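CO-FOLDING WORKSHEET

Operator: S.A.
Ligand of interest: S-adenosylmethionine
Run index: 258
Mode: holo prediction, single chain
Checklist:
[x] sequence pasted
[x] SMILES validated
[ ] output reviewed
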Amino acid sequence: MLAELALHLATPASRMTRQLGLVGESVALWSRGLRQRRAWAGHHARCRDIVAQAVAALPERRTAVILGSGLLRDIPLDLLADNFERVLLVDVVHLPQVRLRMRLRSNVALLTRDLTGVIGWLAGESGGRSDPLADLIADPAVDLVVSANLLSQLAWPIEDWLADNPAEAAQLPADLPACCIAWHLDDLRRFHGRVLLLSDVEMIERDRTGKITDRLDLMHSIALPNPDEGWDWPVAPFGEAARDLESIHRVGAWRDFR
Ligand SMILES: C[S@@+](CC[C@H](N)C(=O)[O-])C[C@H]1O[C@@H](n2cnc3c(N)ncnc32)[C@H](O)[C@@H]1O
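OUTPUT RECEIVED:
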């Protein structure tokens, strides 16, 4: 509890980023990941393995861009830093432990960015969406882009904020949360290098008899091609969120998304 509070206070973030719950979510993800280290290990290992295979297959390794880098649990950072001239870690929140770790690596840089491109719009600072990846898309040295379990996280903070702020919501497109998912996929398609997409796409809740009690389309009906492979990530095993319910997320990997 104290460690979580300290992380909240020590993490730099804009007012709107905090209001959207993104700092709280990063801190919660850090502590849940510690509690569920074993349950999540298979998912993280599989993601890291797929990234490593993409690295091995590349003819050139100049810049690698990791979108939604967060705590880097699903990313083989040492392998990337050893193989690429430059590694850019892009996230709306970088927790202090990640900032400290990066100081040891001279070719790794942190970029703090909102990858929905709409936080400034919600805050009234702009009249529309920004193009959050324009500079990186224009950079011909970007040989690898990994969208690292980010996609499913783009819509819900916007959805919650719109529900809590009906007057502002009335001035914004009603389908803004789903648009954030669609825009990220469009952004990925605009890169020139190899694009690897890793994302959970569906939540399935089950009781102890195995009966499905709830299902949620994390993609808000935005269509994706069939993934190259998929697996289940036990995000909340029995006892994590509810004593007699577990939440499993279905994850997909698209090895060459463009
Ligand atoms: C499920 S976590 C995965 C983090 C990381 N790949 C890992 O496994 O440690 C999703 C990440 O997306 C980031 N994120 C959520 N909304 C974002 C936004 N609008 N722009 C940039 N990053 C965002 C969160 O801060 C978080 O680090």
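REVIEW:
The pocket of S-adenosylmethionine is lined by residues 22, 26, 29, 68-74, 91-93, 113-116, 148-150, 153-154 (CB under 6 Å).
The first helix runs from residue 2 to 10.
[x] output reviewed
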